[in-house]
Amino acid sequence: MSPAAIRLRRVEAADVEILEAEYASADVAGDLAWFGFSDAGRVRKRVESGETLRRDQGMLAIVDDEDTVVGAVTWIKVFHGPPPNGDCWNMGIWVAPEHRGKGYGAESQRLAAEYLFQHTLYERVEASTETGNIPEQRALERAGFTREGVIRRGCFRGGEWRDMVLYSKVRGEQ
User: Which of 55, 106, 108, 168 has most Cβ atoms within 10 angstroms of its Cβ?
Assistant: First the structure.
């Protein structure tokens, strides 16, 4: 599959309604991304306060070639050793249901990692997904991420603890 025709851009006020939908219901979030209801206006608050791009976290809109918002990539700073030498980015993604299965996830994650390596000093970007989320594992692999291992009981969702698969990409990897 060739890369999807998408790009990343700053989140704008007009994008809020679409991006808020992720937190509205399990149908929109997706079976493997529903963690319960969240604060209404969560994205709007971040956009209005100018908190979509900070030193410790960020969010960019995923848009197609017609500038239609199809989802968002987010990242937060995490550490695996004493800061700042152990700091890295942990990345997440959401794609609206009507845009899933088009390759947007893999290309968005590839672009997000590229963006973070171009504009920050961290050497590592990581992402994780539940062991049962095979489409996301394939997307991360197509985006150039390497499977590192399983995080046992790494998240609580749907009333039970679930294992996660950890992926990473380090500066210089394609």
Answer: 108
